[in-house]
């Protein structure tokens, strides 16, 4: 069977960035000896956990370990998710990093184990070496003839190296590719013969006096020597999941964009595994074990946990990182309680790293970093007020107030946020403690406040179905989330 690993159209996706909760995190902020710097790459404090994360990353980068798991455990807003984001940034661009929230596994379109399998395979890269034929040279002339209606185009491309010159006939597709890259005479280009992809390497030195065809950032390169047609080795990394989807006949590669991949047949996966193993033996491919991060892992249920136990022992397993803010909690789908809501046999296989609440100094620095990220100027005394608010309420609440206070400051046409603006924001938005207090004061006026006596008795944990799900959720959140 022929197994495809690329699709030219997969590459042209651009990303848009907004300021998110973790957009200030640019890495783990470690030095070469993996010692955490006090304040670097957007990371502050939490030294032990960052160092532990760095050590694990080192192992991943050396590609030596597979099938290990670690767990970040600690109270809410102590940087578990932030550290995982930092790890993702530190990994090279071709090491896959997949991030899921445990509740994503419970979807209607596929089974829990299929969802987990896909997440696992998304986190395993295959680095493939291939020889392709390319055309490389300096464009001498492009000539395009349009038919009268404009529907079809034909043309000729003259291309040269220092040693030879050749004329190629162009079809509509090639003409479109060339005009998309804005290729002009005097550009040095390569054309991949199998995919037809055109890449512009720069402008020829010989043309450096042609000012009209240049921008400020024009790159000049030498006209290539030798043959126009060459064989070139290219290396590209795809994930096992991408190979699965591209080769699954019912889905096709378009499903990769829609994210709606449905279930993939086990036979196909087996075929792909065999093929990849063959490639490895022939030296054509290497496995790049990546990282799978499962946030809020206590939301998985017992079936998922036992799947994880088994999947971690597979040869093609990534490094699995989990995070949980639960203390002793009920394992979803059972009547048993266990640390972090994870069964003991799984806990036994993971390295546990705990994150601790931040000191005042750390909080102050995190606030400063966030202000820079959100482009907000805080007056010095507003900064200390916000820090003490963070210590009394939560770090997240304080971080959320920054942008609210800025809007209030802007309304009075000030460009600095003062204590007064923070105070107003504080009165507009409640933190969790005040909200609970308010609920108590409002007793009886809100709908559905109490869980009745009858609801307290649960079934044996029918996870994911109607009523059972609702009651289970409220019970766990209600009396067990606060264990820390
Ligand atoms: N060490 C840190 N340096 C800089 N920013 C941090 C640090 N730790 C946390 N933050 C920021 O504080 C906020 C809360 O942290 P985060 O979301 O990582 O908490 P968490 O431990 O995942 O909490 P939860 O258990 O509620 O999911 C985020 O905006 C995060 O980017
Ligand atoms: Mg989190």
UniProtKB/TrEMBL annotation:
**For bias kind Basic and acidic residues, which ranges apply?**
469-478
What positions does the domain AAA+ ATPase occupy?
Answer: 66-357
| Keyword DNA damage (UniProt) | yes
Q: Where in the cell is it found?
A: Nucleus
Q: Give its E.C. classification number.
A: 3.6.4.12
Instruction: State the family it belongs to.
Output: Belongs to the RuvB family.
What is the official name of this protein in its record? Answer: RuvB-like helicase
């Amino acid at each position: 069977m022929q197994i495809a690993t690329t699709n030219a159209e997969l590459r042209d996706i651009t990303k848009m960035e907004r300021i998110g909760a973790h957009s200030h995190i640019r890495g783990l902020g470690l030095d070469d000896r993996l010692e955490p710097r006090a304040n670097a790459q957007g990371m502050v404090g939490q030294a032990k956990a960052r160092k532990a994360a760095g050590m694990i990353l080192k192992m991943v980068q050396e590609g030596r370990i597979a099938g290990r798991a670690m767990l970040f455990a600690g109270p809410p807003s102590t940087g578990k998710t932030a550290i995982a984001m930092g790890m993702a940034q530190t990994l090279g661009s071709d090491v896959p990093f997949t991030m899921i929230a445990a509740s994503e596994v419970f979807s209607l379109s596929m089974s829990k184990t299929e969802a987990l399998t896909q997440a696992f395979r998304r986190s395993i890269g295959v680095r493939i070496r291939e020889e392709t034929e390319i055309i490389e040279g300096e464009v001498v002339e492009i000539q395009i003839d349009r038919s009268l209606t404009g529907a079809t185009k034909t043309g000729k491309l003259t291309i040269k190296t220092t040693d030879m010159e050749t004329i190629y006939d162009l079809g509509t597709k090639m003409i479109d590719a060339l005009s998309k890259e804005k290729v002009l005479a005097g550009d040095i280009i390569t054309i991949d013969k199998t995919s037809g992809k055109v890449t512009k390497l720069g402008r020829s030195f010989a043309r450096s006096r042609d000012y009209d065809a240049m921008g400020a950032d024009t790159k000049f390169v030498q006209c290539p020597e030798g043959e126009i047609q060459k064989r070139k080795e290219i290396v590209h990394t795809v994930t096992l999941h991408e190979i699965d989807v591209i080769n699954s006949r019912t889905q096709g590669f378009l499903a990769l964009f829609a994210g709606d991949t449905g279930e993939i047949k086990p036979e196909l996966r087996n075929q792909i595994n065999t093929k990849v193993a063959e490639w490895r033996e022939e030296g054509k491919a290497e496995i790049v074990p990546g990282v799978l991060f499962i946030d809020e892992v206590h939301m998985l249920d017992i079936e998922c946990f036992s799947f994880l136990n088994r999947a971690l022992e597979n040869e093609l397993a990534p490094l699995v990182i989990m995070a949980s803010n639960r203390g002793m909690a009920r394992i979803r789908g059972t009547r048993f309680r266990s640390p972090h809501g994870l069964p003991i046999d799984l806990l036994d296989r993971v390295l546990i790293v705990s994150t601790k609440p931040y000191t005042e100094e750390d909080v102050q620095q995190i606030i400063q970093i966030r202000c820079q990220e959100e482009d907000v100027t805080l007056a010095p005394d507003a900064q200390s007020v916000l820090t003490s608010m963070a210590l009394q309420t939560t770090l997240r609440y304080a971080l959320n107030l920054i942008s609210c206070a800025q809007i209030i400051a802007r309304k009075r046409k000030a460009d600095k946020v003062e204590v007064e603006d923070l105070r107003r924001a504080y009165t507009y938005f409640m933190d969790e403690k005040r909200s609970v207090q308010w609920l108590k004061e409002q007793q009886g006026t809100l709908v559905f406040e109490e869980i009745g006596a009858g609801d307290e008795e649960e079934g044996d944990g029918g996870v994911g179905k109607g009523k059972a799900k609702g009651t289970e959720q409220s019970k766990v959140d209600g009396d067990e989330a606060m264990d820390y």
